[in-house]
Amino acid sequence: MPSAKLPPPDKVQKILIWHQGALGDLLLAGPALAAIHRHYPQARITGLGHPERWSLLAPTLSLANIWDSAGAFWSPLFTSDSSLPAALKERLAPFQLALVFSPQPHPTLLARLAQAGIHRVHHLPSWPTFGEEPVGNFLAAHLERLGVPAHFEPFRLVVGVDWQSQEPPLSGPGPFLAVTPGSGHPCKNWPLSHYYEATRALAWQHGLRIIWLAGPAEEPILPYLTGLAAAQDQLLLTGLSLTAVAATMARCRLFLGGDSGLTHLAAAVGVPGVLALFGPTDPRVWAPRGKRVRVLHAPCPQAPCAAAREIACPEPRCMQKLTPDIILDTAAALLSNG
Question: Contact, 258 vs 296, CB < 8 A?
């Protein structure tokens, strides 16, 4: 059985952090990852998971490597019916510590990482399974029990010096408002008619230039966004890498979006005003944190109604009740306060 505490900093030169979660989950783990980086300042960290998502953390954590967990190379770690390939053991043996973030522990994976030669292997649950505790606080408490000081604070990403080179040119002088209307579940999405009304009013009242950022979550509504952007002389950016999206957001004065990974990204890059719209999911647990983040939740007696991460509601009635006027008043207050 592993010790209740992680090894001291002078005993760790290389750390493997396994996190295969979605963008929002990875950024919610940001304060915990930053605490690990601070506790082991001399250690070289390798991130194992989705490479594009991990690339956002490379400057902040001074990552030594980013490895893709989707490759077949790692599949022997999930079975115990054969010996580990020599190449896998050679890759993993130099690490003194492995931290595996996942919703539930994978005993076989943890045992196989130890079998590969990693001296200490620990599981960290990705999020609370019940209650109202913010994910960041939940992870900080786990790290404290392992001996890592992890006072919760809003997570900020260091924007890479090369990210601006990937950013598309933005026509017009700004200031810019970035909008991401999609998410991982249709019931978390604010109605497009509300987005249309709010963005048109914000552009007119505050002179904001609208940027629609469209990725995989916006693909079903891309024809609508294309026509809307063209009709309103707004910008529509599609197919950008996450680092290019981050660099674009960093130039914006305001951000508007729902419970999605890109809303967490906007908060993490320090957009001066972030409007985060929540309905069925509990913002006390899942919302981004920050002095300039305003979480707006639906005025619905049933919301939040999601059980853990499962949304049973057949339609986003709560999001429909979150009217554009509420968003416009909050945006005006943010903009007037600089």
Answer: no
319: its two tokens? 């999001």
DSSP-based three-state secondary structure for 209: strand
Q: Tell me which amino acid residue 314 is.
A: P
The pTM (predicted TM-score) of the whole model is 0.95
Rounded Cα–Cα distance for residues 300 and 199 (Å): 23
pLDDT at residue 1 is higher than 50: no
What structural domains does the chain harbor? 9-145 (3.40.50.2000), 171-336 (3.40.50.2000)
Is 158 strand, coil or helix? coil
Contacts of 223 (CB under 8 A, 6+ apart): none
> Angle between the 192-206 and 324-336 helix axes, to the nearest 10 degrees?
30
Residue 67, both tokens: 């490895």
The pLDDT tens digits for 77-103 are 999 888 999 999 999 999 999 999 999
